[in-house]
Specification:
- Helix content is 39%, strand content 16%.
- It is α/β, with parallel strands linked by helices.
- The protein has two domains: 37 residues, no CATH class; 174 residues, Rossmann fold.
- The mean pLDDT is 90.
- The chain has eight helices and six strands, in the order ααβααβααβαββαβ.
- α4 packs across α6.
- α8 links the parallel β5 and β6.
Length: 218
């Protein structure tokens, strides 16, 4: 470790991305308790429209929810590296070889200017760094719609994202199997709309991976 990193770690010791506890020397990204007790999301069979498959690292609850809210709304953009490592590991376990390129669900230009960063683009770059790939921009958000978190009901959520995205340079993903990244899966309306746009523009398959997904209540 360089002197600069030693000084940085002394002044700003690395913390668990979920609970914020200072990590031990042998810990990376998560403390021992969170690594064991975080609400892991199993690989699911529930089908989302236009998606061939999807997965998430955790359920979107408790410390995971609080962590992702800090990441999105409180400038904790450095969390992307930890999320990227953890999501890349799950992708390798569950979807290795099942895709040709990685892209992401983009936020609007207005929201990026206001927030200062696109949190899912940062996640895509972190995942690709772990997998030895480069993310490919395949989508553009062309309308600043109300956030999905404020809309109740699947039909209303689907209507809110209809026509919001357009394909970018379809020749880059035509006949390719696309892995689409997002931070949080709620009803899947946004992902389904993005997948529909990609398939219409020529993608062969669309799979999804996210940091967290809302638990399905039966």
């Amino acid at each position: 470790m360089s002197l600069r990193h030693q000084i940085t770690n002394t002044l700003f010791p690395p913390k668990c991305v979920l609970c914020g506890r200072i990590l031990e020397k042998n810990e990376l990204d998560l403390c021992a308790d969170c690594r064991i007790n975080a609400p892991e999301c199993p690989v699911r069979q529930r089908k989302l429209p236009f998606l061939d498959s999807w997965l998430a690292v955790w359920h979107y609850e408790d410390s995971v929810r609080r962590s992702l809210l800090r990441y999105k709304f409180h400038n904790k953009r450095h969390y992307a590296a930890a999320y990227g490592r953890l999501l890349a590991m799950k992708i390798l376990r569950e979807r290795d070889g099942a895709f040709d390129l990685i892209t992401w669900v983009p936020i609007s230009r207005w929201r990026k200017l206001r927030r200062g960063y696109d949190q899912v683009e940062l996640l895509a770059r972190a995942v690709c760094a772990e997998l030895g790939m480069e993310p490919v921009r395949c989508l553009r958000k062309i309308r600043h719609n109300p956030p999905q978190s404020g809309i109740v009901g699947q039909a209303q959520r689907r209507a809110n994202v209809l026509g919001v995205y357009e394909a970018v340079a379809p020749e880059n993903f035509r006949d390719q199997r696309v892995l689409l990244l997002d931070d949080i899966i709620t009803t899947g309306a946004t992902l389904s709309e993005c997948a529909r746009v990609l398939l219409t523009a020529g993608a062969k398959e669309v799979h999804c991976a996210a940091v967290a997904a809302v638990k399905e209540h039966k």
